[in-house]
Amino acid sequence: MTMHSLAARGEAKPRLRLFCLPYAGGGTSLYSTWNRRLPPEVQVCALPFPGREHLWQEGLLDRLEPLLKQLVRALEGRLDLPYALFGHSLGALVAFELARRLRQQYGTHPACLFFSGRQAPHLAERLGPIHLLPTEEFIEQLRGRYDGIPQAIFENPEWLQFFLPVLRADMAVLETYQHKSGSPFQCPIGVFGGLEDRLVGIEELEAWRVHTTGAFQLQLYPGGHFFIHDANLPLVAVIAEQLHEPLHTEGWTQGGARARV
Fold first, then answer.
1. What is the 3-state secondary structure (H, E, C) of the chain?
2. What phi, psi does 133 have (nearest 5°)?
3. pTM (predicted TM-score)
4. Count of alpha carbons within 13 Å of 131, Cβ hemisphere only?
5. Which of 41, 58, 225, 232 could form a disulfide with 50 if both were Cys (CB 3.0 to 4.6 A apart)?
6. Sheet holding 83-88, edge to edge
7. Beta strands 216-221 and 112-116: pairing type?
8. Nearest CA to 145 among 226, 248, 203?
9. pLDDT digits over 26-58, tens only?
10. How far is Cα 121 from Cα 211, in angstroms, rounded to an integer?
11. Backbone dihedral angles phi then psi of residue 3, each to the nearest 5 degrees
12. Residue 176, Cβ neighbours under 10 Å: how many?
């Protein structure tokens, strides 16, 4: 499985990598402008899931464990710098577990973690599973829950034929997830949510606080579950501010783990 950076700017040597993960059914286009909006020392590395974009020939994965293994393999050789992770919705859950896996497998620690549009992983799901429903019921549930999915997808048979298996696989990853308790991170955690998001409430976003012994920040913006598509939101500026300290702090060890005195 190969993954690529969305474009490191050639004139600036990166000092930190920001690994970005997509939401269910989504791809890396969400992050296509982030390199221009973050400090030049930050290299944005958007990580697509198998079965879409340049990985469209790879088989879809419908469980978290094989997805994590693929992502960890894709990041081999990229952990020589400090790193942070960002994910929206399903991507937030995957980013959280990926950070845990990297800590366990390589002993590395993220500089920051950013989670968007997703309840804290230890909370029970409020909604029932839908990934095994018949096609018409599955589509109806998707449209009812995720009002930000473009209507054109449901009206175009060819697009629907492609996206339905992708969405089923991603929803299966989400709905079969079983949280296991573990030690909290020491890095700052930034959480983002939509004020009109019917899927994730403020208390469920606040619950991420227990997963760090470091600083915690919650930012709420106008919009529903896909508020993140509003390019005018200062979300990226908030991320840039959070990354400022790791970029200007000496004492990082191999693999991006900050040496503590």
1. CCCCCCCCCCCCCCCEEEEEECCCCCCCHHHCCHHHHCCCCEEEEECCCCCCHHHCCCCCCCCHHHHHHHHHHHHCCCCCCCEEEEEECHHHHHHHHHHHHHHHHHCCCCCEEEEECCCCCCCCCCCCCCCCCCHHHHHHHHHHHCCCCCHHHHHCHHHHHHHHHHHHHHHHHHHCCCCCCCCCECCCEEEEEECCCCCCCHHHHHHHHHHECCCEEEEEECCCCCHHHCCCCCHHHHHHHHHHHHHCCCCECCCCCECCC
2. -70, 155
3. 0.89
4. 18
5. 58
6. 42-46, 16-21, 83-88, 112-116, 189-194, 216-221
7. unpaired
8. 226
9. 888 889 999 999 999 999 999 999 977 777 778
10. 9
11. -130, 155
12. 13
Q: Based on C-alpha coordinates, what's the Rg of the chain?
A: 18
Check: CB of residue 108 under 8 Å from CB of residue 114: no
Burial environment of residue 127 by CB neighbours within 10 A (0 to 12, 13 to 18, 19 or more): exposed
pLDDT digits (tens, 9 = 90+) for 51-109: 777 777 788 999 999 999 999 999 998 999 999 999 999 999 999 999 999 999 999 99
> Is residue 166 within 8 Å of 51, Cβ to Cβ?
yes
> Which fold is adopted by the domain 16-123+183-247?
Rossmann fold (3.40.50)
Domain ranges of the chain: 16-123+183-247
Angle of the 64-75 helix axis to the 90-106 helix axis, nearest 10: 60
The Cα 56–Cα 47 span in angstroms is 13
What are the tokens at 207? 């619950």
| Residue in the block written with tokens 């606080």 | 209
